[in-house]
Amino acid sequence: MALERLDHYTLRMAPDALQATRDFYIDVLGLTEGERPPFTFPGYWLYVAGRPVVHLAGSNAAEAQEPRPTGQLDHVAFHATGLSDMLAKLDRLGCAYEQRTVPLLELHQVFLTDPNGVKIELNYAAGEAEGAER
């Protein structure tokens, strides 16, 4: 028995925060909205390559403000391609980000934050960074 891959992550928030969060993941990161079971609470399932990888779930306002027992999650990472296009999009949208290249791993990283304060890491092949850094 072995783990194969990360399946998805869920962000729980007040219903009035759902739309802005959905828009961030679609407009900035390029995920697509897809089918979602008919739960009794509002939300969205957002897809990458036909798989639902980000689940957005609405909670009542009081519940959404309660601390979640999820420990010390620092960030969520996606493997990506098209670094130059992504940097141009982030600049056009006025979305703050930081970059770094990881020595010895041939990895270039872009860090940004979603509307709920969740840090997102985008990982690109280091070769894409040549001439793309801003």
Helix content: 10-25%
Q: Could you name the ranges where pLDDT drops below 50 across 5 or more consecutive residues?
A: none
Q: Kindly, what is the distance between the CA atoms of the first and last residues, rounded to a whole number of angstroms? A: 44 Å
CATH topology descriptor of the largest domain: 2,3-Dihydroxybiphenyl 1,2-Dioxygenase, domain 1
Following the backbone from N to C, one meets helices and strands in this order, namely EHEEEHEHEEE
Q: Which CATH C-level class of the largest domain is it? A: Alpha Beta
Strand segment count: 8
The figure for the number of domains is 2
Count, helices? 3
CATH homologous superfamily of the largest domain? 2,3-Dihydroxybiphenyl 1,2-Dioxygenase, domain 1
What is the correct CATH architecture of the largest domain? Roll
Q: Please describe the biggest sheet, giving its number of strands, its sense, and whether it closes into a barrel.
A: 4 strands, mixed
Strand content: 25-35%
Overall mean pLDDT stands at 88
Strand order of the largest sheet: 1-4-3-2
Q: Could you say which structural class the secondary elements and strand pairing correspond to?
A: alpha/beta
- Rg, Cα atoms, Å: 16 Å
Shape assignment: globular
Brief description of this entry?
By secondary structure, the protein is an alpha/beta fold. 20% of the residues lie in helices and 34% in strands. The chain has 2 domains: 7-69, 2,3-Dihydroxybiphenyl 1,2-Dioxygenase, domain 1; 74-134, 2,3-Dihydroxybiphenyl 1,2-Dioxygenase, domain 1.
